[in-house]
Amino acid sequence: MPGADKETDLSERVEAFLAELKRGGSGAGPLRGAGETARETTALLRRITAQARWSSAGDLMEIIRKEGRRMTAAQPSETTVGNMVRRVLKIIREEYARLRGSSEETDQQDSLHKLLTSGGLSDDNFREHYSSLKANVIEAINELLTELEGTTDNIAMQALEHIHSNEVIMTIGRSRTVEAFLKDAARKRKFHVIVAECAPFCQGHEMATSLSKADIETTVIADAAIFAVMSRVNKVIIGTHTVLANGGLRAVNGTHTLALAAKHHSTPLIVCAPMFKLSPQFPNEEDTFHKFVSPQEVLPFTEGEILSKVNVYCPVFDYVPPELITLFISNIGGNAPSYIYRLVSELYHPEDHEL
Amino acid sequence: MADAKEKEEPNQAPSINHTADGGDSKNEDVGRSKTDGRELTKEEKQRLRKEKKQQKKGKSSKEDKGSSEHDQGKGKKPVALPESQVARSPPQKAAGPTAPAPEAPAAASSSSSDKPTKSKAELKAERRARQEAERASKAKKGEPGQQPSSSKSKAVPSELQPVVKRLPEHVQVDDPAAIRKLAKKLERQQIPLRSDYGNKVSLFSHLHQYSRNAPLTQQISIPSTVIHPSIVQLGLQYSQGIVAGSNARSVALLHSFKQVIQDYTTPPNEELSRDLVNKLKPYISFLNQCRPLSASMGNAIKYIKKEISNISSQCKEEEAKIQLLECIDTYINEKITLAAKVISEYAIEKISDGDVILIYGCSSLVNHILCEAFEKKRKFRVVVVDSRPRLEGREALRRLVKRGISCTYVLISAVSYILPEVSKVFLGAHALLANGYVMSRVGTSQIALVAKACNVPVLVCCETYKFCERVQTDSFVSNELDDPDDLIVTRKGKTHLQDWQSVKSLGLLNLVYDVTPPDFVDLVITDLGMIPCTSVPVVLRVKNVDQ
Description:
The structure holds two protein chains of two kinds. By secondary structure, chain A is of the alpha/beta class. Helices cover 50% and strands 12% of the residues of chain A. Chain A is globular and about 65 Å long. Chain B is of the alpha/beta class. In chain B, the strands form two sheets. In chain B, strands 3-2-1-4-7-10-11 form a seven-stranded mixed beta sheet, with helices on both faces. A three-stranded antiparallel beta sheet of chain B has the order 5-6-9, with helices on one face. In chain B, strand 10 and strand 11 form a beta hairpin. Chain B is globular and about 75 Å long.
């Protein structure tokens, strides 16, 4: 009976998490930050590992994959969920491989010989039972959680390397990572920040009030003035929702315009994004890339007469191609966009790209 | 305004010398008349003007008998004004012998109309003699001058074309000398000075920033005897944003001027051509205080002034007025109405069936073009892009939907989402600058940028009367700052920026205009044809030759 209780308890938690995901997707931006989502996902996956019934690594991976599919289906735009699932799958593979004794590298190298002789070997590999696998996996997930907790601080610590004094920095919307980044630099340096308000949700206002409370000279501008003031800006520092596998971004709408304006003025564009936002997806799937919210934000119902005759769009995300980005700052350091593919292959196993 | 005491604008000498000495009784008179809201009497004004001129020229020698000669007839009337601008006069003097020459005949001619007792030539000769004496003595002193370089424009010898034009006041807000000059000018014209509001972003401290809640009309008595009521109404409409848009403002201005001209009567011993121009100056100052003049308004005013001063003195008043009203009507008709028709015809050639056209904000010309194209049965659909805080695109949306054109509506942050579907971008302009830059509503340059990145052609539609000789490369040096409180928004019951004024390190910036570089613009459609952006100075030159 305790097993059954655990199972129902577990499924309740999963259901509750799914409901939260579904609810969080509608309305003004995320209800909670991406970092929180990542941590909750990882905690949930740890619980599943601990409480679900499985005997071999393959079973565990199946269970996690199944739950992962459900979670990503609940909120497709919330890519951190999928990223965490893939990270955990990679952890399981690694721990399994370590217990088996084979080194990681030989397993991962796809040599011609291996392709021709083995073929389909990888599936059978995960059927063996190891008693210490559970403990190892849980420990590794704990490490992952610790890493997740420290990402914002890690990124903020690098702030002084990138901001000099008397700079004019531009940002758009509200990103907790960028906020911590700028506040950390402001402890030692004096600079000026221009925040684009990012209509229609105007998260930029909140960002500006928060920055000004830290005694940073802040100016709020309307989105329409981005190009007009860009000539006086030294750096553009933005956060993003997702980093795609080609080095591009899926960021809040208005970022593409900002990136183009920065490119025109040869202003460096720096993206502060923790590693859990890196997704192995590519931007080609047009119908799943964009997410729309209620057009009431753009054209309110008070304009009733014309509403029925007009198409109104309110997209949430923008695609920014990697050519417009100068630098990624993440918790593991700074990287060029051309290096992102390497990081993807380090974090995720190629077979997990499709859950 | 059929007063006997017609207002006479004193000649505006570029540098005004004020001293804080004596003459209290007359000061009280002036003070009292100002607080009464009554116009200064003609005599008082003449005295004012004379006194200032004398102080400027005869400062070092107060006991100059030449000056006192003039005042014998009228009596001395020094004016006590708060600032003391001692250092202003010398550079004016030291500049060149020709400098006082243009002033002297002008001063002499106006003073001659005041005092028919002395002849023009006599006055001129007297003045010149005095000035020569003064200059000789001043040249030795060589006091440094702190005048803004703009006033030196008159100092340039008249053989050369004056290259340095007078820098407009509204971009010199950070220069206290310029502000004082403006304050004095306004005081003379009896127009209140509008005070700036809120802490400005440091990059824009050279521009004014007014609050919509404090219109200028609160500071003048209504009905005002100084300013014509239609002008007061117009000023209020401008400052509250009721009349907005380049064409609308110009047309409203011209209609108000028609009203002014109709109500105008020439005072005795005055010439209509000169007096009317002087009468318009305080109106223009007032409108400038309500909202800085646009380039199109500036051109219209220049045209009117030219027409007025071209009225021959033989003309009777009624005829002159009819002629002027006709001129204004022709101007509106030619430059705005007919121009719009011609531009529509050109633009419709560029619209083909199946087009998706993107427009930004509410430009009367672009709306006109689209409606005309729809009448001519072209099949297209329109994407209207709008931006906070003005949200003018909603007005354009209403007009187009009423005609039956199918429209899409997005905010400017979504423009990179919608642009791949768009085949052409039509933009309106506020002014076209001589170096090919397009000055338009803020956000236009952004749309042109993204369109260029997506290889979508950008067409700007602009009438030729909006072309101006200024050059500008960025949106900072000359712009307009709107009320910063417009950016504040309440979402879900929370207003984040509510007390932005109390936080010292927080600033709000609400720009009105920006400049688009010519490489983003593919074509400019004007009433003279379809030209590239870089041909603007050619058009200006041709226009100047014509005139």
